[in-house]
Structure formats: C-alpha cells, structure tokens
Amino acid sequence: MKKKYDVYGLGNALVDIVSEVSDDFLQTNEIEKNLMTLVDEDRQNHLMSVIDHVNSDKQCGGSAANSIIASSQFGGSAFYACKVGNDAFGKFYLSDLKNNGVDSSLNAESLPEGITGKCLVMTTPDAARTMNTFLGITADFSTNEIDEAALIDSEYVYLEGYLVTSGNGVEAMKYAKKIAQENDVKVALTFSDPSMVKYFNAQMKGVVGEGVDLLFCNEEEAMLYSQKDNIYEAREYLRTIAKRFVITLGANGAMIFDGDTFIDIEPYKVEAVDTNGAGDMFAGAFLYAITHEHSLAEAGKIASLASSKVVAKFGPRLEWHQAKEILNHLFEK
Description:
Blueprint: E1 5-10, E2 14-20, H1 23-28, E3 36-38, H2 41-50, E4 57-61, H3 63-74, E5 78-81, H4 88-99, E6 102-103, E7 117-123, E8 129-134, H5 148-152, E9 154-160, H6 167-182, E10 186-190, H7 194-199, H8 201-208, E11 212-218, H9 219-226, H10 231-238, E12 242-248, E13 254-257, E14 262-265, H11 278-290, H12 296-311, H13 320-331
Parallel strand pairs: 1-5, 1-9, 2-7, 3-8, 5-6, 9-10, 10-11, 11-12
Antiparallel strand pairs: 2-4, 7-8, 12-13, 13-14
Helix pairs in contact: 3-11, 6-8, 9-10, 11-12, 12-13
C-alpha cells in the first residue's frame, strides 16, 4: 500500500539569510571560508549588522529542509520534523514550509518560547559558500519533535548529519532510525558537511551503526569518514556501511553505488554563481526520483541537472516551474 509520505526528514530548522560578500569581508571578520561554523547569538548579530543586506534573501532552510522542499517541488509528498521558536522568524519558517507543500507537526499558535535558529550564508564571487550558524532553539531538537505516525507512514526517513553536534540530536537520529527499521521504512543519511565528519566522527559512526539504506556525501566527506587517501578506496569502505550511496563530485558530476555496481553521473556544465544548497538539491531530487519509479541512473540525471540549475543562481532552491521543466526535458515523450 502506498504510504502517505515519500520522505520524512528531520534536521535543524534555520532561517537562511543569503548574502553576497567579498573575500576581504571574510578575512576582515575572521570568518573561515568554505565551512559551516557554529557561532553564538552575539557573534551572529554582529555579522548581520555589518553585512550589506541589499542583496540578501531570506527563506526557511537547514540542510534537510532544503532537500525536503526540493523533493516536494518535483512532486513528492514530504514531512519535516524540526523545532522553531515563537518569534517572527519561527512563524516565517512555518509559513514557508507550508507554502512549499511540506507537512509538519508545528502549530503557529503553540510554538515554544525561544529564538529561532538562523544561518548566514555568505557567497563570494568564486561561487563558494561559507556559513555561520546560530542554532537557537533548534539545538534542543530531540525525540520529542518526532511524529512517529508520520514517520511510519513514509517510504524513507532522511537524517541530517548536522544533528550530530548535540547529544539530543544524536539520540533523535538514532530513535528515528530505530522506528524506521522496525516499520519497513528505509533509512537515508546525509553527512551534510566535512566538519561534521571530521569533528564529530564518533557521533556520526554511532548514528550509522550497522549501516543505512542510502547515504549521501561528497568526495571530501567520503575520504574523511573512511580515513582513506583516495575516492576509490573510500567508496569501497562505504560499501560496508550503506546498501546504496551517492558521492557528489562537484563539477565532475557524481558516482552512485546501486548495491552491485557503480554508476557514473555526468555533470551539466554551467557557470556557477553560488554553490550553496547544491548537495541538498541533489539529495532532494534523487529522493523524489527513486520514490517515483525512476532507476538510480535516472535519479542521478535528474539530481545532477537540478544541482546545475541551483548553482547557476543565488540561494539553495529552484523555482517550482524549473523542477517540472527538468522532468519534461529529460523524459518528454
């Protein structure tokens, strides 16, 4: 019987504030380029005060949220488990989720006291993205935010690697994984960022446990997690922890392990202006495809084209019509 949701995601709820900055801005403000760095509220408020907001954009985000919204844009059914506060940003987040066709258990009238998390996404002229994140109330995300009924009524649960930065986040991931495995729900995991694998390796391995059904990572994350020196040794190691996996390779496309063989996915050449959300878009489009009767090779094509579209613009999302155009372009009769 068809389940209600294709994908049930859990992860941080962050209002993304995307801005264009210069390399000099990063150096002057002692911001480490190309990484996601956790900061306190005072530090984030300072950066927000000195960033030029003329070219800024605001939307609900967080890695898994971006993927869940992408899946919804392509036509998938999705649920997102998260935590926001009862401030203006929290109400905005909830409204933006609904406007993007994503269900949740959040209620605007009963949001908890607290400050909603925010992520400053700073994009430099070379299309690199650097993030400074104040987690706010999402740092308290726990098993309490997991809607078991919705999870059980999903084909996949999608775990965001960023949750490994807190003990309660790790427990929520493990709990969701346990519920999924007991109820014939497939488990997908994204490593999210090299820093999560590098600095929270033990926590990530605790979540992986005896393995997952589907893993998303990039080349650097694959080598860091496996502690191998090249991608070919790394992918052999990943075969021991994931039934299937995707390694994104940036401008070189991606490689997919389908359980038996490797599938190379060619890139779509574009002029990149903002790499923010490329991996999230790939995962979301891929999850949509494999839950809608596409082969893994077809899913890789859809995800690769979607990622190329998103890096050619600012922000981690496509327009709704672009998702439909991608499907029409690849599969028009």
